[in-house]
Amino acid sequence: MAQVLGIDQTAFLECALLEYHPEVHEVLTEVLGLPLDPDEEQLVAMYRIANLDGCIRIDGALKETLENLFELARLAAD
Questions:
Q1: Could you give phi then psi for residue 37, rounded to 5 degrees?
Q2: Contact status, residue 17 vs residue 25, Cβ threshold 8 Å
Q3: How confident is the model at residue 22 (pLDDT cuts 50, 70, 90)?
Q4: N vs C: which end of the chain shows fewer Cβ within 10 Å?
Q5: 9: how many CB neighbours lie within 10 A of its CB?
Q6: Average pLDDT estimate for 8-37
Q7: 8 with 15: CB under 8 angstroms?
Q8: pLDDT above 90: residue 53
Q9: Which residue has the higher pLDDT, 18 or 35?
Q10: What is the C-alpha separation between 50 and 5, in angstroms, rounded?
């Protein structure tokens, strides 16, 4: 429906949930932190593509490396 109306699908879904299912909207926003901003969406998309076979586990050395990378990115942005 959002495509037919020519509006952003995420914004449309958020609006519909807020209007028709406010309790679901509350859970998605407060518990899950949705909606994602564009950078978060891009990270999730990259992870999903890389993990098509479901073998990537974010723990151990990978988790530490990702945390360090995000810290460096945060410092560079300051």
A1: -80, 170
A2: yes
A3: very high
A4: C
A5: 11
A6: 92
A7: no
A8: yes
A9: 18
A10: 33
Domain boundaries along the sequence of the chain = 1-35, 37-78
* Per-residue pLDDT reduced to its tens digit, 58-69: 999 999 999 999
Gap between the Cα atoms of 18 and 25, Å rounded? 5
Instruction: Name the amino acid, one letter, at 7.
Output: I
Amino acid symbol at 66: L
Q: What is the pTM of this model?
A: 0.67
Place of tokens 């901003």: 37
> In the numeric block, which tokens belong to residue 41?
């969406």
Report residue 71 as tokens: 């810290």
Count other Cβ atoms within 10 Å, centred on residue 4.
6
Q: What's the mean per-residue pLDDT of the chain?
A: 93
**34: enclosing H helix or E strand:** none
